[in-house]
Every structure is written in C-alpha cells, then in structure tokens.
Amino acid sequence: MPLSLPHATIDDDVYRGFDIPKVPDANVFTPERFLNENGSLKPSDIESIAFGFGRRICVGRHFADTSLWSIFSKVLTIFNLLRPVDENGEEMNVEPKFTNDIAVHPVPFKCRIERRIPGLDAAGLEQLIGAKP
C-alpha cells in the first residue's frame, strides 16, 4: 500500500549533504508555486510516486499503468458517465470528497452510467472491446 504522505519543510534543512529549502507558506494553497515563469505546469513525477523510486521501484508499474489505461478507455468507449438526477429529473452537481486516511481515496458518490450504443448486448460488447469468451 503506497503511503505517499504529503510533506513539505517548514524550515531550511540539510539531509545527507542535500540542501532542502523551506517551503514558503507550506500550509497555504497557492497553485502558482507549481507553474513556470511562462505559466505552464512544472514537470512532476506525481504519476510515478505511488510506484516508488530507485532500486525499490515497482517492477509491475508499466503493466499496471497500461492495464488501467485499457480498462478506462474501454469503459469510456462503451458507457457515458453522467451526473445523477434528482426526483424532478434535474442533473445534480457532484461534490468531490476524499477520505483523510493515509491512503487517500474518493468516498462513494452517486452517478448515472448509460450505454453509448442502445441495444448493445453481451455478444456485441465482447466484439466491440475485443474480448474472447
């Protein structure tokens, strides 16, 4: 289980000869700190942080990434993921909420899942996604 604990230094520090500068206002949300001078997003390793680094990096990281991409692309090809509706048929907004645990994940939420292709049966679905029974 990846811990990926958020961290920032509140004072200048030195660790094994590396200078770690203090983060100004580490507890204040300032998204500008993640932008370059030209306004583009600074490069980040956030996508790979869950898989570790160096000698202990997960050997299955590429397989996991490719598998998730394949699953999500197939789901989005076949289904529309929509906002839930209230009793009057009006779309409701979904507030993104997450747990405050060590491993952060979204809390359950309501949504609508509809087929993109009406009348698509299991055989047609298998043919569409290339699945073999």
Number of helices in the DSSP assignment: 2
Q: Characterize the main sheet.
A: 2 strands, antiparallel
Helix amount, in percent?
A: 10-25%
Q: What's the helix-strand series? A: EEHEEH
Shape, principal axes of CA atoms:
extended
In terms of DSSP E residues, the strand content is 5-15%
Number of domains: 1
N-end to C-end Cα span = 33 Å
**Arrangement of strands in the largest sheet:** 1-2
Unreliable stretches covering 5 or more consecutive residues:
none
Compute the gyration radius: what is it? Answer: 22 Å
Structure characterization notes:
By secondary structure, the chain is of the alpha+beta class. The protein has one domain. 20% of the residues lie in helices and 11% in strands. The protein is built from 2 helices and 4 strands. It has helices at 61-78, 122-129; strands at residues 13-15, 18-20, 79-82, 112-115. It has a two-stranded antiparallel sheet. Strand 1 (13-15) and strand 2 (18-20) form a beta hairpin. The longest helix is centred in the middle third of the chain and has 18 residues, at 61-78. The two termini are 33 Å apart. Keywords: Heme, Iron, Metal-binding, Monooxygenase, Oxidoreductase.
